[in-house]
Amino acid sequence: MSTTSPTPARPVAVPREIGTVFITGGSSGLGAALVDAVEAAGGTPAVLDRVPPREGVAFVQVDLADSADAARAVTELVEQVGPPSAVVTAAGTDACGGLLDIDVETWERVVRVNLFGTVAVVRACLPHLEASRGTVVTVGSTLSLRGFGDATAYCASKYGVRGFSHALAAELKGRVGVTLLIPGGMRTAFFDDRAEQYKPGPDADLNDPASTAAAVISALRQPVGSEIREMLVMASGESSWP
Fold first, then answer.
1. Which residues contact 42 (CB under 8 A, 6 or more apart)?
2. Dihedrals phi, psi of 60, to nearest 5 degrees
3. Please, which residues have CB within 8 angstroms of residue 215's CB and are 6 or more apart in sequence?
4. Its pTM surpasses 0.70
5. How far apart are the first and last CA of the chain?
6. Residue 180 and residue 106: Cα distance in Å, rounded?
7. What is the total count of domains within the chain?
8. Where are the alpha helices (DSSP H) in 25-151?
9. In this structure, what DSSP letter does residue 13 have?
10. What is the pLDDT averaged over residues 154-158?
11. pLDDT grade for 24, boundaries at 50, 70 and 90
């Protein structure tokens, strides 16, 4: 008779339930696609934005250029729907043009919304996420990886988001998951207000925001102890990477 002890069974990695997901910029573009994806995955989306999302989605109005207002909005959203199990910072803005052609207030607002707004919302959500070992998904850009002329404000803000995300992941390892999403161009209204020279050309290969949102759901479903730290999602013909 063998006296060898049986090998202990390895614990099964169980995908997370999606839970309640706070989404900045959830009224349009990638944010709106995320609202749909979270609902389809059985979760509860809740939106922080300047304008309301579609009917039936929890919402608090916020100016993400104002860090105090961002903190206030998170508190109000928690009162509405309870604490988040994840937060996705999909809100973003830009200002195209040469550095000397963009007024100081407009240039700095891009950085305040894209970078400081991201930090303020994550900061306000963090105690709740630590309690549940939840997930932060920050949204960078392919312009987090390379600079483009006439995009100094946007590049500065998105490079900042990337650096913030890397440092946050190191700071919170084992306590809160941190994923940096780097999306390529998408078929959204993001480009609509630009001058013609800064809009994608008629042959540009842009991704469906629903496809990008599906990648975020994959990150949110990672079992506790497993994280997707960074993911690059784009149309196969994307020209801004590598």
1. 17, 18
2. -130, 130
3. 181, 231, 233
4. yes
5. 61
6. 26
7. 1
8. 29-40, 67-81, 104-111, 117-132
9. P
10. 97
11. very high
Q: Is residue 78 part of a domain?
A: yes
User: Is residue 88 situated within a structural domain?
Assistant: yes
Q: What is the CATH number of the domain that holds 224?
A: 3.40.50.720
Task: Tell me the two tokens of residue 16.
Answer: 């997370």
User: Which CA distances in Å does 187 have to 30, 97, 122, 184, 195?
Assistant: 9, 22, 27, 10, 17
CA torsion sign for 126, 117, 52, 54 is negative
As a whole number of angstroms, the longest Cα–Cα distance in the chain is 85
Q: How many whole angstroms from its chain centre is CA 229?
A: 13
Tokens for 117, please give them. 């707004």
Asked whether residue 6 is domain-assigned, the answer is no
Q: What is the pLDDT of residues 25-79, one digit of tens each?
A: 999 999 999 999 999 999 999 999 999 999 999 999 999 999 999 999 999 999 9
What does the CA dihedral 51, 232, 12, 43 come to, rounded to 10 degrees? 10
Using left for φ > 0, alpha for ψ between -120 and 50, and beta otherwise, residue 191 falls in alpha
pLDDT digits (tens, 9 = 90+) for 188-224: 888 877 788 877 888 889 999 999 999 999 999 999 9
Closest among 151, 160, 157, 49 to 95, alpha carbons compared: 151
